[in-house]
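Trying the structure run again after the queue cleared.
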Amino acid sequence: MTTRIPRRTLAAAGLAALALGPLAGTAGAQDFPNRPIRIIVPFTAGGSSDVQGRLLADHLGKLYKQSVVVENRPGAGGHIGGKAVVDAPPDGYTLMLGSIGLHATYGVYRKLPYNPATDFKVLTILAEMPHVVVANEALAVTDLKSLIALGRKSPDALNFGSAGVGSSVHMIGELFKASAEVPMTHVAYKGSSAALNDLMGGQIQLMFENPPTVLAHVRNGRLKALAVTGKTRSPALPDVPTVAEAAIPGFLATSWTTVAVGAQVPDALANRLSNDIRAIVSSPAFTQALAAQGMTPVANTREAATRFVAAEKQRWDGIIDKAKLVAE
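Done. Tokens:
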């Protein structure tokens, strides 16, 4: 037998659902989290993203009184990890430490299994940093001008490594190559750690790497720091000139990291995460920890972060098109 429900009852139930919808979303955000969270770092352990991811995990775990685990998912310029975040349940328990490669230079890939422009919600730009032009200690150069002179004199002399095609380490190297008009061969690795090992072993001669990855090796003399790519000298390397000072007036390039979630995570929860993470990143303890690694906190709003990423995408698309860069 079919039971008929009066239309008046159906209408009342519909209005009640509409009224409770926003409240339910808010309650979900307020109750979050009640189980462990994971932060996917789409690169190998030991690199800059990994350093920041573990720092954030530590502070976020203390705030939420929950376990926050860093999970390294390297490969395909970070897009293996990126796809894992997009495919995760949209419940806010899977975060990503994003990068230029995931948000702004994915144009090097002819085809990806997802769309980085629409499949992420960027919660904030976590930090920004200049890169360091570092050379193997045995390379016969003393500064940036002698490096450029060597490259022009011996076109096969310079190979620079990166964390993968389209990574910030790669793209800043390409920008330097074009700006200095110096021949260099790019060698892509599956992460900065592997490239760094080959740099110190002499298999490659250069990297345009993030400060946290190379500072210890510069300080112990295993690598030469020739220049930094930011607007001003790095407090972590006060004696190292900028690229603009040393050889190429006007040169400026920084990398940045995001904290992002999948696009289907509800806005109420995304806003809660954004506010909490921004408060952590702005705290004196977190700021000091970043500064010790040569990084500057940003901690901007979701809206500002989204606009920033869009502008960076446009900028780096120009480099990709000019250099005809394609990930194999």
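The first strand starts at residue 37 and ends at 41. Worth checking whether this holds up in the mutant runs.
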